[in-house]
Amino acid sequence: MLFPTVEYAVFFLAVLAISWALAPRPIAHKIFLLAASYLFYGFWSWRYVPLLFLISLFAGLIGQTLQRIHEETTRKRLLIAGVAVCLVVLAYYKYTSFLLLSALGLWGLVGRTPAWNIPTPFLPLGISFFVFHAISLMGDIYRRKLREPLQLLDALLYVAFFPQLIAGPILRASNFIPQLLRKRDLQHIRVNRAFLLILAGLFKKVILSNTLATRLVEPVFAAPASFHAGDVLLAIYGYAAQIYCDFSGYTDIAIGCAMLLGYRFPRNFNAPYTAADPQEFWQRWHISLSSWLRDYLYIPLGGSRRGTSRTYINLMITMLLGGLWHGASWTFVMWGGLQGLYLVVHRLWAAADSPAVQRLRSHSAWPWVGRLLMFHAVCVGWVFFRASTFALATTVFHQLGSRGAVTLAAWPVVVCLVLGIFGQYAPRVWRRSVEATMSRMPVAVNGVALALGVFAIELLGPTGVAPFIYFQF
Amino acid sequence: MRSYRHFSKLSQLAASVGAFVVVALLLESGGIYDWAGRLDLGPERTVALPVATALHRVLAPLRIERGRQHALVELARVGWSDDPAALAEANELPRLAKPMTPTAVVAMGTTGTAPAHAATGTKPATTITRPVPLRADAAPGLCILPPIPAISVSGTRTVALAGDSMMAVGLSSTILRQAPHYKALSFVHAFKSGTGLARPEVFNWQLEYPAMLKDAQPDFVLVAIGANDGQGFVEDGVTYPFGSEGWKQIYQRRVQAYLDMLSAKGATVVWLGLPPMKSDSYDARIALINRIDYSVVSASPHAIWVGTAGVVGDADGRFRDFGEIDGHTTRLRQGDGIHLSDDGATLITTKLLPWLAAQQVAKPAVPVVADQEVAKP
Questions:
Q1: Nearest-CA distance B144 → chain A (Å)
Q2: pLDDT by residue (tens digit) across B190-228?
Q3: What pTM, to 2 d.p., does this model score?
Q4: Which of A402, A423, A444 is the last residue before a domain boundary?
Q5: What is the span of the domain harbouring residue A363?
Q6: Distances (CA, A) of A435 to A112, A439, A455, B5, B7
Q7: B10 to A21: CB separation less than 8 angstroms, yes or no
Q8: Which of these is catalytic: A70, A326, A346, A363?
Q9: Mind listing the domains of chain B with CATH numbers?
Q10: Is A183 exposed, middle or buried (0-12, 13-18, 19+ CB in 10 A)?
Q11: Are residues A144 and A75 part of one domain?
């Protein structure tokens, strides 16, 4: 079930009430949350609930075995086997078609391809996320970051916990499982913060993202040759705002819901379009994925410890695979490759220390120049991320040189575009002062304010609910 | 240092959540009632609809819902909303007093004439005196497109793209990307994902389609619809499970009403049969929908059936993920096993678009001159 729906609101209110009532009984509390998580996932398709359960169980059993074994070689082999099984499952569901078509494409270069029609499986919702959770569980236990003996119930709940199940944030087992082991402390839940997160998430998803998608991005990317430079440029900016609002909106709701249930999720977005360089961008965008890739891929490859050339290669491999994780298509790989290239160029730039470069960096306007350059570099990557083919992406870039009237800059589109991009520059103190003001109000008034906010969002939002972009991953 | 509230008691949380629920129900009783009405037949609707109906009835005297509707119209008036029906209401465009139900359509056929084609001089629509018999054979997977009159080099054909997500995803974008190659064709958007003919209370095509067209008068209407219609519905308080005799009759009348609306002003409707589906159970539902659609379309002089199973399906017309285009194996369907990929849509549009554009009548190279001038050396 999608977050901004009546079904989810009813489901969550019921889960919240029961969860708080069960807080003094930890085992019952966790069993209830696990059942609720399977119900949440089964609402999409009951057929794949066993897959979710089996992946979680498998990771949990491997984790328990890793904790019992002390011999390092055996532990390493067991970890590799566990990770390999998870990746094979992910590859089967997500990459079968991609691998087949790529192989046939290579075959076609040398001869006529056979007329194959191999059935490919449906893609289970959120599989990229819960497989990564399973890998994180095994990895953190291997690195001895989890001291307490792993309980299977905790492993199952960690992988399947419904606020993060479908589209993240990607939780670390070493961060989340200790929370499961603690008794729920209702006194440390910032309920107003959670309310504000949910409201902000709904606003970004229902209004900003949906408006930009339906009135700007989709018409242009469906047929870019029909539009001119102004509309195409707006659509590229629009997609940058759309994907940020869509994804950060979802994770805001997820974090807020988890907070109300008594669990802390890590922040996943931190005003990414204010970044002045690629390294800063990846410290602000999809933070849980970038840190996962850093800790489970980049560092095991050697990170920056094996010389400059090897560092660049490791960066490229990490980002190329990061691109592939997003989607089974060469355009996603291209997006990842661009991100890797930006990081490599940034390192080269950071290493440059000529007087001219130093003067440039020390100029007061340089951070803003950096932000402008970084934002547009990110937008170039978004074109490949959004376009379904290279031909489409090429057409989009080509149309940036065409002359003609701007037809899609209706005022609601412009407002949503400005809010989606420049809203990230809003001072954090504003949000904190709103939360502090709410804390001084009677508790019932907080509930009324939330209801009024939801009503306003429903009024301003388009009819229907578009799926979250990151659901397809 | 700021202090933030921490709820330490269940009673505090209950007060806050309770206030939220009460105020949300007050403000959104109309929206919740609409939501419950849109649910598919099943346990969720069985529980939700009576509760939502009772709530709506109790709160109706407060007139909050009326205020909400006024707000929606005003939002459309200032340009915030781009919903066609809301825009039509905001701009006070003429629209039907009430949605055309299948019963109304049949009655109109027996007591009067269907909308005439007088403006274009084409033949009047066939009046509906009784539903056409449901054909026993399956809908064909292919169709030979009949010859159509050539258009002059200065003229253009307006083509409306209508339907649900089967048109919205894959087909429309492929058509629009190829449009620059067909200068003689202009296209009008008249599709919306998540709609269909089975549930007019969710999306009423009789109201929405004229608003989508605005001032356009299409010569052709390409239709791909029905993917969301494999469900039961309630008509006049009676529940009709999918595939029952009553369901088939009512659905057939809705298809007829939709077809009549599309062709009302002289447009020729090109009805694309739905392709085979990956899921066997869903494919069986779509086969029935195709059979009903084909029965109606084949009986209409203003509509052409275009089967797609023979194009994107395998040799037996069944679902396939992959196919060949220009000697390269490519994916013909999206990962959901329902919608067409861009390449799958291309297999269809490469046949349709040239046919729609047809041959153009060339203008003479030189103007006609008087005989004595031509005779000069």
A1: 26
A2: 999 889 999 998 889 998 999 899 889 999 999 999 999
A3: 0.86
A4: A423
A5: 191-423
A6: 65, 6, 20, 9, 14
A7: yes
A8: A326
A9: 11-90 (no CATH), 102-361 (3.40.50.1110)
A10: exposed
A11: yes
